[in-house]
Amino acid sequence: MAPQVSNVRRIFHLGLPARPLLTWGDGIVLAGLAALVYGGMRLAAQAPHVTPSREISLSPATLPLYAVLSVARMTAAYGLSLAFAVVYGGWAAHSRRAERVLLPILDVLQSVPILSFLPVVLLSLSAVLPQKIAAELAAVVLIFTSQAWNITFSWYQSLTTVPAELEEASTIFRFDRWLRFRTLLLPLGAIGLIWNSMMAWAGGWFFLMAAEIYTVGTRDFRLPGLGAYLQEAANRGAVGAVVWGVVTLVVVIVILDQFIWRPLLAWSDRFKLEMVEGEAAPTSWFYDALQNSRLTRWLNRRLLRPAGERIDAWLTRRVGTPDTPVQPAARRSPVFFAVSAVGAVGLLFLLSHGARYVYVLSGSPWGEIVLGLVATLARVAAALALSLAWTLPLGVAIGTNRRLAAWLQPLVQIAASIPATALFPVLLLIVLRLPAGLNLAAVLVMLTGTQWYLLFNIIAGASAIPQDLKYTTAVLQFSRLERWRTLILPALFPYLVTGAIAASGGAWNASIVAEYVHFGGQTHDTVGIGATIARATVAGDYPRLYAATLAMILAVVGINRLVWRRLYRIAETRYRIE
């Protein structure tokens, strides 16, 4: 049996080049982000007073309109996220020099809590834009920050694990950039993109409440929408309104599943890398109806196909130039050095003034921040471990069993999309009476912010396992343990790393709402960096907010570089299917 196991293992490419743990790019990125955070907070401190645009009605009759407004914001944020992921992830995957700078930035952005972004984004926009426009843009940007990162990581992982023989074939046939993207890269990344898009929408629903209604010190803003409805209902303790809001959310999720995600999954099954057809392809009644519709075929022949051909020809002319060997870097002009000098001076100016924010803090806040980092890190680790324990077997079962997926996929989407912040007050009433109290509740809320990233990526990875490799393990009569050890886990490894990186960012994000909660006229909090950030945000204590946010950034970047980035490199070089 050992030779047979060895043969299956050869499917996965081996070899792991040494890489430096930290680069000069990391220092520049962290310094730049610290300066940007300080600059945003300075704008925020000088922003005009933001008043509520309107009161949020809890009448069930307003829910259809609120749902449409929220879906519109989510759609705008998702379009921005998808464009960002394709450009950003592609740049990082195809340029090692750019990767050294872009990935640390991505590590930081996906790990900084959305509620730390919100005061800076909202109040900075309010300083230069009308209130209504600033509030709408802030909501879209904040939903974007909950959607973009896992899509980008998924696209990056797909590009860095393209089979070598397909890369060689595209080079031999001299594919231009657009043809290579359309016929090789996009099909290979389609399954992961779709599943992570579903997760991105779930993450957007999770933080929609925070993006549509928010208070920073004496400044208050709110937008009519489903998230604001749920938040207002939770604040008033209106259980009936919470139920109506959750029911509406479930209806919206089911509609999106039946008319968007399930048809896309049925369509993407053609892009699996396999030599034989799967046992049961995913199905969609709506996709079948479109395929069999005469009107759809007429529109495709008369409108969609000609328009697609024109767009394809235009893109071929614009970005379809063949890849050429990298030329030696040209000598940089004096303008480049002048712009760099001005940028460096501005960066040093912002950093020096940002240091004043940190300097005014006494020793006590720093002790609170360090202790909070340790406590939150322990909760994040516990949430990740608990998430992996149940998502791995369930995700493999859903990804490899089409009948099971047909029943469980909509349920998973609904469960992932229901904002835990809407149910957190109910959870508190039960958990606060237990010995662990809010610490247990915080871990449970973090669990809701981590488990879905892992589950959706595991499902995507299990769905992408070639059917011929499954047949091979069956012919060789592998035991269940051997099949997991030689096929399933190696094939899932890149998806596990992608899910774990996004999950850890989700856990740090959820620490804000998990460690500090206001319910029933009382505030409940525990030791943690999320609670420190939340208290500073509510009080408008910008020095403490700045210091706590930077401390979280440094901690998360260190963990990502020490753990996740090394695992990503292993996934890229050792566990690609060849």
Polypeptide structure, described:
With 578 residues, the protein is an all-alpha fold. Helix content is 78%, strand content 3%. The strands form two sheets. Strands 1-2 form a two-stranded antiparallel ribbon. Strands 3-4 form a two-stranded antiparallel ribbon. α2 (24-45) crosses α4 (96-111), α2 (24-45) packs across α5 (114-128) and α5 packs across α6. The protein is globular. The chain starts with a helix and ends in a 5-residue tail after the last helix.
Query: Topology as H/E string?
Result: HHHHHHHHHEEHHHHHHHHHHHEEHH
What is the number of E strands? 4
Q: Overall pLDDT, averaged?
A: 75
What is the overall silhouette?
A: globular
Structural class per helix/strand content? Answer: mainly alpha
Rg measurement, Å: 25 Å
**What is the strand arrangement across the widest sheet?**
1-2
Percent strand: under 5%
Major sheet attributes: 2 strands, antiparallel
Low-pLDDT sequence parts? 1-11, 13-19, 47-53, 323-331
**DSSP summary: helix tally:** 22
Q: What count of structural domains?
A: 1
